[in-house]
Design goal:
This protein is α/β, with parallel strands linked by helices and 258 residues long. Helix content is 16%, strand content 13%. The protein has five helices and nine strands. The termini are close together.
């Protein structure tokens, strides 16, 4: 359980939309230590409460490339029960969390769980990403995503992290956050509850983002991340709610048991 939760969200020196930094106060909450796994998600499907897709949905990607990226979806794999579920849209993630008595984390809840009150640059601290801390694009990922006639993909790690695509959740304990949350950087990005919008400077209590929007906030890097800056705890990204990506999954939060 996370409690006594007052921290500074954002980064004045960060990328677009990370400023201005501002104080956030959060009520106590519990967050999953790991991303939701294929096995846990499959159980919800078996109960008839969740649905599964085996393809991505990313209209900006040429149709000819979609089968290639869909091949990295984990939902139909029988050998990846301990890997994160991916290729799920926002509504599917929201449905799963509610079926389990929880909900998706707000962006503020997600950042605190990743960053802590110490304002860590990465979940593990301020040291640069290394293969024992994070699953990001490495030489194995470069090989897996290389296609004929195209330049080799860039890498965030120069040595192997042991996974060409997703890894079993919790495979990088050295990369855990202060609170023990695993894979807050890398493996898969994660849906949050919030609509995407700019930050303001005023202090906030239990913020939930804009009331409406067109894209949802997604947080954390992923197995194909080539830019280490995107693995930072303050890095923000956005995705249309209907997107399904091989690099995008989720975790849930719940109210603390009293």
């Amino acid at each position: 359980m996370l409690e006594n939760n007052v921290y500074q969200r954002g980064d004045a020196a960060g990328e677009r939309n990370e400023a201005p930094p501002h104080r956030v106060s959060l009520a106590p909450y519990c967050i999953d230590r790991t991303e939701v796994t294929v096995g846990r998600y499959r159980a919800c499907v078996a109960e008839g409460r969740c649905t599964v897709h085996t393809t991505i949905n990313f209209p900006a990607l040429p149709a000819a490339e979609q089968p290639f990226w869909s091949s990295f979806c984990n939902g139909a794999r029988t050998d990846r029960d301990d890997h994160p579920i991916n290729c799920v849209d926002w509504a599917q993630a929201d449905t799963y969390c509610r079926a389990r008595g929880g909900r998706l984390p707000t962006e503020a809840e997600w950042e605190l769980a990743a960053r802590g009150v110490e304002a860590r640059r990465f979940p593990w601290g301020d040291a640069a990403p290394t293969p024992d801390r994070v699953n990001a694009c490495d030489p194995d990922c470069r090989t897996a995503t290389q296609r004929p006639g195209r330049p080799p993909p860039a890498v965030a790690l120069n040595a192997s992290d042991g996974a060409a695509t997703t890894a079993a959740v919790g495979s990088y304990p050295a990369g855990a956050s202060f609170y023990g949350a695993q894979d807050m950087a890398g493996n898969v990005m994660e849906w949050t509850a919030d609509w995407f919008g700019p930050y303001g400077a005023i202090p906030l209590t239990d913020p939930t983002g804009p009331l409406t929007g067109t894209t949802r906030v997604v947080r954390g890097g992923h197995w194909s991340t080539s830019n280490p800056a995107q693995l930072r705890t303050t890095a923000r990204a956005e995705a249309q709610p209907g997107f399904r990506l091989a690099t995008l999954g989720f975790r849930c939060v719940a109210a603390p048991e009293m």
